[in-house]
Structures are given as C-alpha cells and as structure tokens.
Amino acid sequence: MNKKLLKYQLKDWLPLIGVIFIIFAVVILSNAFNYKIIDRYSYLPPEEAKYQINQFPRIGIYNTPFLIVCAAMPLFALDYRFKHTQADTFYQLPFKEKELKRTRLVLGLTIILVLFTFFYWISILIFGIRYNNALLVENVDKTNEWHLIYSLPLYLTLIIEGSALYFTSAFLVSLGNNTLDSIIYVLCGQFILGLIIGSAYLFTNDIYHCITGNDFKDINLMVYGLSGIHVGDNIHYIFYSLINGMELSGLKDFIPSIILLIVSLVFGGAAFAYMFIAKEPSGEYAGSIKKRYRWIKWLYYVSFIIITYYTIKFNYYSPSYTVIIWLTIVYIGYYLIISISNRSFKPTKQDIIAFIVNTVFLIAVIVILKL
Q1: Distance in angstroms (rounded) separating the CA atoms of residues 11 and 31
Q2: Which one, of 192, 261, 254, lies nearest residue 226 by Cα?
Q3: pLDDT tens-digit profile of 215-241?
C-alpha cells in the first residue's frame, strides 16, 4: 500500500474517526460504567439485606454499534466515486489500478477494528473489576457467576462477522453511482441477504427434523434491518449464555448459529474477492443517476416482496387494522424508494408491474395462511 495515500487518507478521515470513537465510547463504555451489577433482594427487609449478582449485560451493547458502523463505513471508503470532480481527481493520482479502492477499504476496516478492539477490552476490564468488587460485598449471593474467559471467542466472532458484513456492504455500495442510491442498495441488499440466510436455516432445520424428529432452537429470523446484525443476535446468544454460566442443550444450540455464520461468511468472502478483483467503473458514472446495471432495480422489487411477506407473517394474529397500517407503510416506502431512485414521482412501467406482482403475491399469501 502507498504510504503517502495512507497518511493523506488518515488525515482526511480524522473527523470520521472522531465520530466512530464517540459512538463506541458512549455505547460501550457508558454501559460498562453504569450497568447495575448487584441488586438487593426486594422481598427482604432492610435489616436482612442480601444482594444478588445480575447477569452479564446483553451482547447488544457490543454487536449493535459495531455492526452498524461496519455496514456504514463503505459509504465513506467509496465516496470518491459519488462526485464527478472528486472522481476525476482521484483517478488521476499516480497509483496503480485498484490501489486506491483497496487502500481505502482496508484502511476503513482497520480503523473500525482498532477502535472497537480498544473499547471492547477496556469495557471487559471494567466489568471484571466491578464484578470482583461486587463479590466482596457482604451478604452477596454468588449464584450468578460470570465466566469472562468467553469474552475472547465472542470478540473473535464479532471481528469475523463484522468484516464479512463490511465487505458485503462494500459490494452493495459499489453498485451505486451516488450516495443516495448506494444507501438504498445496502438496505435492499441486506433484506435479500436476510431472506437467503433465513432460508438456509429453515432448510437445514427441515433436514434435522426428518432425521431426529426435533427442531433447532428458535432464532430471530426478522429481516427488518441489517441482516448481519440479526445473524449476530443469534450467534452471540451462545456466548451470552456461556459468560453467565447457563447450560446449553448440546449441539442443537450451536447448529443454527453455525449455519447463519457460514452463510454470512460465504457472502462476505465473495464480496471481498469481488471488491479486490473487479475493475473500477468509468469516472463518467460518478454522481450520475444512470444505472450501470440493468438488473439493479430487482434489489428493490425482491426486497419489496420480502418485506411484504414478513409483514403479513409476523402480524398474522394482530388486528386487521394493524396489518393494514403496516402494509400501507410498506407500500408508501416502496413508492418513495422508487421515486428517489428514478428522481421522479412518476413510476416506470417496470415499477408498476412489480407493484402489481407484489399485490398478487400478497393476496396469495393471505389466502394460503387463512387455509
């Protein structure tokens, strides 16, 4: 990598580094300092005060800010493509082909990993000190033991998962010619990835059920958000259980998480290879609303169908008016995304056909579920 480019890019990203620093500090360290480790048993009178150790905090204090930053950072790593003048400037720099993209991508991920590593282990140290101090409190119930040794495999899993999400997001960002389109591609692409990950789990669960007559542990298959974060929710529950000394019911608890992580890593690995091999797009597309790929709108259409399906599925037992409200929001959201993409409130024929197909699909799902 070019040292001059690294030095320039670090200086240019100082404000961004500061923002990431603040996010991790506020979310992770504030929890480490403020989390209530011991509680007094409320049913005992004050003169018979006895305390209990609370469970280790939910893993969301780590995976949520970390994975959101991993998903968003590629927008900054590849933003030189989004303005014509900036693209011309960067493409004229004396670097080898693809070196600019590779350097910015690797540097972006390195910044995230370094900052997260620092705050993660500082918080574990703080939790460890506070936990040991709690054990010294008189009349404390030590039933809920913390096994912080499992914070190491949790950290390693987070790093691997975050890196996979980073490059998956980078691939989706690279499909756009401007910031707005790239944000839409990331959101829609993650919905589709969520469906693939969920389908892989359900397919494997069916095989497991045919062989053993049992099912895997229930997992979160919601796709309302970045699928990588939901993958993390299920994987990290294992470490949350181990840190808190909970018993796991054998291999069955691990299989769903392994499946989700493998599928996520396959997509992340493929995205990594693509980003390092693919040629840079022509500078003439920079900042343009023109689509480089004719198939790109299928990201909108497929994600629209996915969201509609899950809206019905997860609100099936809700009152009818609740379902109608949510579906109205989904359809309005679809129209707004299409309008933003087209830079016009007038949908194309292809958009209208996709709308009709989705409505027919919606009716079919409702009829099937009613049966």
Answers
A1: 30
A2: 192
A3: 666 555 544 344 555 566 666 777 888
Q: Which residues contact 294 (CB under 8 A, 6 or more apart)?
A: none
Strands, E assignment, 183-342:
none
Domain boundaries, the chain: 3-41+51-291, 297-371
| Predicted pLDDT at 224 | 38
> Could you count the other beta carbons within 10 Å of the beta carbon of residue 50?
13
Rounded to an integer, what distance in angstroms lies between the CA atom of residue 81 and that of residue 101? 10
Which tens digit of pLDDT belongs to each residue from 242-280? Answer: 888 877 666 666 776 777 778 778 888 888 888 888 776
Tell me the three state secondary structure of residue 77: helix
Instruction: Judge whether 144 and 245 are in contact, CB under 8 Å.
Output: yes
List the helix and strand counts (H, then E) for the chain.
13, 3
CA 11, CA 13: separation in Å to the nearest integer? 5
Whether 70 contacts 228, CB under 8 Å: yes
- Beta-ladder partners of 140: 51
Q: Which of 20, 7, 269 is nearest to 160 (CA)?
A: 269
Over the stretch 67-109, which tens digit does the pLDDT of each residue have?
889 989 999 988 877 765 665 566 666 666 577 788 889 999 9
| C-alpha 18, offset from chain centre | 21
Contact 141, 53 (CB under 8 A): yes
Looking at per-residue confidence, does 170 or 278 come out higher? 170
CA dihedral defined by 259, 330, 303, 355, rounded to 10 degrees? Answer: 150
Phi and psi for 348 in degrees, rounded to 5? -80, 170
Q: What angle do CA 175, 179, 182 make, to 5 degrees?
A: 30
Helix (H) or strand (E) holding 15: helix 14-24
User: What backbone phi and psi angles, to 5 degrees, belong to 78?
Assistant: -110, 15
How far apart, in whole angstroms, are the C-alpha atoms of residue 300 and residue 352? 12
